[in-house]
């Protein structure tokens, strides 16, 4: 680690947050210029929606979404039209602040008039999405999947998907959203950083139980129930590739402005966290993409009020150590020399 900046040229530079270093002329950097901006909720929604307009059947893995405040009137009109054409449609929507992370500022609404427009939306733009009401449940709980994807290069486009990921569970049994339970975040939101504060959160000492499990343990359960796990994986791979294809044109613009062709510069790679929700019919839906997924392999445990200690987390270790190890193997600068 170089807390006060670099001293020596390196093969691999591993930055904490984002790519900002004009002094790197060679080697490989674990961040792409512009990636943090690209996966923000609004930018990602725009990129995927552009593709939805062109290829609606190929990009049907992303919930209908509107950008606030600019598309608020459009949101109101479209919801009214859809309700008029199908009076039985009782939608729920989820509002996510553009720059929010770890579940910060997310809330559910039943009607466009419930959006908290006062001040906050003007100063803090957001995306509003149709809420996925028929999620696949395990042990009566809603969960999402965090998959780790290595974008190894943009030209040629090279993508690797880790074979295992994390399944992060809600801590209250799921019920379809109603006006009464909309505010129950432990039932509707799968964010680990929210659910860890629930009294029902279970720190697991193996990969098959608790509030955070391996994705492979869920696949085993589905397989034993007769689900077509091969098709599920192929749908997930397709979702990942198509999402990255949607982001690629803008990423290339960022890349070329930071590292112009013909000028010496590093090459880039990046581990992305894809958050995916499985519907009851096993269709994967993209929730969001994280440019800086946590690589911690321990969790905080409260010993007494306000006193925490870090405890190893076997589930995180199982998945993340493999992700880092295989990433370093794939970008191994020595390979070319051997």
TrEMBL record:
It comes from the Eukaryota. Keywords: ATP-binding, Ligase, Nucleotide-binding. The keyword Ligase applies. GO terms for molecular function: ATP binding; tubulin binding; tubulin-glutamic acid ligase activity. Gene3D superfamilies: ATP-grasp fold, B domain. One of its GO terms (cellular component) is ciliary basal body. The keyword Cell division does not apply. Pfam families: TTL (PF03133). GO terms for biological process: microtubule cytoskeleton organization. This is Tubulin polyglutamylase TTLL11.
């Amino acid at each position: 680690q170089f807390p006060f900046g670099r001293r020596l040229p390196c093969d691999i530079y591993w930055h904490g947050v984002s790519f900002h270093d004009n002094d790197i002329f060679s080697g490989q950097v674990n961040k792409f210029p512009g990636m943090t901006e690209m996966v923000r909720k609004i930018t990602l929604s725009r990129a995927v929606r552009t593709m939805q307009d062109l290829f609606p059947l190929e990009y049907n893995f992303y919930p209908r979404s509107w950008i606030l405040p600019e598309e608020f009137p459009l949101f109101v009109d479209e919801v009214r039209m859809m309700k008029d054409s199908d009076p039985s449609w009782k939608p729920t929507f989820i509002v996510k602040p553009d720059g929010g992370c770890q579940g910060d500022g997310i809330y559910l609404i039943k009607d466009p008039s419930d959006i908290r427009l006062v001040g906050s939306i003007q100063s803090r733009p957001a995306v509003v999405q149709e809420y996925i009401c028929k999620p696949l449940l395990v042990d009566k709980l809603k969960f999402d999947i965090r998959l780790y994807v290595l974008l190894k290069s943009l030209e040629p486009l090279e993508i690797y998907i880790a074979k295992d990921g994390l399944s992060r569970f809600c801590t209250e049994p799921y019920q379809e959203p109603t006006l009464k339970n909309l505010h129950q975040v432990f039932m509707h939101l799968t964010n680990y950083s929210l659910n860890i504060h629930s009294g029902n959160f279970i720190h697991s000492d193996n990969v098959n139980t608790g509030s955070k499990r391996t994705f492979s343990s869920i696949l085993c359960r589905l397989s034993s129930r007769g689900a077509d796990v091969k098709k599920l994986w192929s749908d997930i791979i397709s979702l990942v590739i198509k999402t990255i294809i949607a982001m690629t044109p803008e990423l290339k613009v960022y890349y070329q402005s930071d590292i112009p062709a013909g000028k010496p510069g590093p090459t880039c790679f990046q581990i992305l966290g894809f958050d995916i929700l499985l519907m009851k019919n096993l269709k994967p839906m993209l929730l969001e993409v994280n440019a800086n997924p946590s690589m911690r392999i321990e969790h905080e445990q409260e010993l007494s009020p306000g006193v925490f200690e870090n405890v190893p987390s076997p589930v995180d270790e199982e998945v993340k150590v493999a992700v880092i190890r295989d990433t370093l193997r794939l970008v191994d600068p020595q390979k070319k020399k051997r």
